[in-house]
Amino acid sequence: MQVTAEEAKSLIAQLAGIDVELVNDLFTSTMAAQTATAAPVASTLRPAEGVTKLSAASPSESAAWEAAGLKAIAEGKVAALTLAGGQGTRLGFDRPKGEYDIGLPSHKTLFQLQAERIVCLKARASAEGAGGRPVSLPWYVMTSPMTDADTRAFLAENRYFGLPEADVVLFEQGTLPCLDFDGKIMLESAGRVAEAPDGNGGIYRALHKCGVIADMARRGVVGMHVFAVDNAAVRVADPVFFGYCLGMGADVGSKVCPKAGPHEKVGVLCLRDGVYSVVEYSEMDKATAELRAEGGSGELVFNAGNLCIHFYSRAFLESACSPATLPKVYHVAKKAIPFADPATGRTLSKEAMAGRGNTGIKLESFIFDVFPAAKTMAVLEIRREDEFAPVKNAPGSAEDSPDTARQMLLGQHARWIATAGGKVTGSGGVEVSPLLSYAGEGLQGLAGKEITAPAVLVLPAEAAAVQARVAPGVAVVPV
């Protein structure tokens, strides 16, 4: 294989950034774990214990959790973190997924929806717990090498959607080299190692390496809310969840919801060998997935669907999630990884790759791999229709698509309006701006009013900006 001087220089620079000792440790530990004789997964599992159903909490309990969460926000103790390393490829979108518009009447992107929920929550915390003083709620955004530059440019161009620039901190998750089945590093081309993101569990190493843990300490943050960018309905830095987790003295908190069915493609939070873990749907055999409780409820035994909505105490992130203490057993993804032709040094074409099958592996860590290290786990069961609208599949798909997420949000907003005493008529839906209401509060002024869809209810200050984006026939209604 011939290598040019420029290719050699590039390859040497890339190799200098790879921790080969770590890669070897990960490969050895992971392969050893895969070949070790283990009991069937089902025999190691028990349903999650200590799950609190938000729907069963008394109004005074949930109000106390919310008040504690708002107080923590007012004191600057809360941070939010969006996992934003993915592209919108499955959506037919060649940009970072956070820039995707799911088709709401306002045409706000996923990033904008999440940022504006923070803006609204800060205003509430300021008014209710800080005597009107400004409140800091930092927003950390974990990107990947594929999304970092575009995400930085997009957020800057949109002036961080009303958040102070100093409170929006972007950092990159790491990558790992792709390996052949013997653990050797693969070359993508003569001058480049084949690499892939290290999974959403790469968050922990990146938090330390990129200085985010130190930044949290400097700001006085005691807890962080972590969630995926593709959840259009996520309640960012949810004060109810925060108050609940703080009251439990939790190292880690997790929101779950009942599974839509035994074979829904979500992981399940449960006890594995006596400690909290998430078991992926692909790991659970059919009989175990279909087990139902005895008695009249008919509820699935393993029913705590994992939503990737988590709380972490800073102390837990500092100690149990430091690079030195992180698990060394990763997950293996066997892939058809393009590699360099040994003769020419060029990446094999699609035609040349056809029929080869899997050519190597990618090692990934998952965000829930550290759960067994938590001494105290807080689990809150929420209603799916309130907080979980994933955007994963292409438009037109029957589930987890922009269409299903949009309809869920518009249905939620119609319920908010009805609860406030208003009424929605017509078709096309009525959207409630996140700046106007975080979770249905503050809409008392709609009592007795009729809103004709399609429409967007907004704060007066944002009316002009929203009006410039909506389609003809969509009413923009300041409230």
Helix coverage percent: 25-40%
Distance between the termini: 68 Å
Number of domains: 2
Tell how many strands the DSSP assignment holds: 22
State Rg: 24 Å
At the first level of CATH, what is the class of the largest domain? Alpha Beta
Average pLDDT across residues?
Answer: 95
CATH homologous superfamily name of the largest domain? Spore Coat Polysaccharide Biosynthesis Protein SpsA, Chain A
Structural class by secondary-structure content: alpha/beta
Looking at the overall shape, the CATH architecture of the largest domain is: Alpha-Beta Complex
Shape: globular
Biggest pleated-sheet summary? 8 strands, mixed
Key features of this structure:
20% strand; globular; 479 residues; 2 domains; alpha/beta; eight-stranded mixed sheet; Spore Coat Polysaccharide Biosynthesis Protein SpsA, Chain A; 14 helices; three-stranded antiparallel sheet; 29% helix; single chain
Model description:
This protein has two domains: 5-388, Spore Coat Polysaccharide Biosynthesis Protein SpsA, Chain A, CATH 3.90.550.10; 409-479, no CATH class. 29% of the residues lie in helices and 20% in strands. The protein contains 14 helices and 22 strands. The strands form seven sheets. The chain has an eight-stranded mixed β-sheet with strand order 2-17-11-14-10-3-4-5, sandwiched between helices. Strands 1-12-13 form a three-stranded antiparallel β-sheet, with no helix packed on it. Strand 3, helix 4 (110-129) and strand 4 form a beta-alpha-beta unit. The chain is globular and about 75 Å long. The relative contact order is 0.15.
